[in-house]
Specification:
Layout (H helix, E strand, L loop, with lengths): L3 E3 L2 H13 L6 H12 L5 E3 H14 L5 H4 L4 E3 L10 H23 L6 E3 L2 E2 H35 L7 H31 L3
Helix pairs in contact: 1-2, 6-7
Length: 199
């Protein structure tokens, strides 16, 4: 906060005149302060209290110039702001709070992230379910094929007691394998409907 003026040349000229004309009537302490200001080289300062005393004197004496005329080319002397040192306990506490908030933010952002992800499409558990599902499909198809092939083989071998011609034996084996295959497909479809929850 400003507490003084940096006086200019107009102040110096007017105060010099004032000191010459009012040598006897000017109070001694005020005269000494003003003389000290004039004796300083550039950037001399005039305190607010001295300025108030000078203003009172000029009003009491009825002088033809006023304080604002004296300070017309002067400026406020604004002291340089000195930043106070930071309290180390407060700085440490602020750092702890900042780290805690950063950790909470990180936890909030990463709470849905699973460390076991293979890729962006799913986790290892999803991959395991897909493997088990694919394994069940492969086993079902393998069982279907084995059943149809075994039925065909059994019918072909068993039909030798009924038919002597190979063509008749093959046709009877194909019919038996087709019937068993259709029955397997029916059971498979009903099982899949039950798995899917359909009536």
């Amino acid at each position: 906060m400003a507490s003084s003026f940096v006086v200019g040349d107009q102040f110096r000229n007017k105060v010099t005149e004032l000191l010459e004309y009012t040598y006897s009537s000017l109070p001694h302490p005020l005269r000494e302060e003003l003389q000290e200001i004039l004796d300083k080289p550039a950037a001399a300062t005039l305190s607010f209290s001295t300025a108030r005393q000078l203003k009172s004197f000029l009003q009491d004496q009825g002088h033809p110039f006023y304080l604002h005329e004296l300070l017309e080319d002067s400026s406020l002397n604004l002291p340089e702001f000195v930043k106070p040192p930071r309290n180390p306990v407060l700085v440490a506490r602020l750092e702890r709070i900042k780290n805690k908030l950063a950790n909470e933010e990180y936890s909030r952002i990463t709470r849905n992230v699973n460390a076991q992800e293979i890729n962006r499409n799913g986790t290892l558990a999803d991959f395991g379910r897909e493997v088990r599902s694919a394994k069940a499909v492969v086993v079902t198809i393998f069982n279907f094929l084995i059943t149809v092939i075994a039925t065909f083989a059994c019918s072909y071998m068993g039909s030798q007691y009924l038919f002597t011609e190979t063509t008749a034996r093959v046709i009877s084996a194909v019919i038996a394998a087709s019937v068993v295959g259709l029955a397997e497909l029916y059971v498979l479809v009903r099982t899949m409907e039950g798995d899917l929850g359909e009536p």
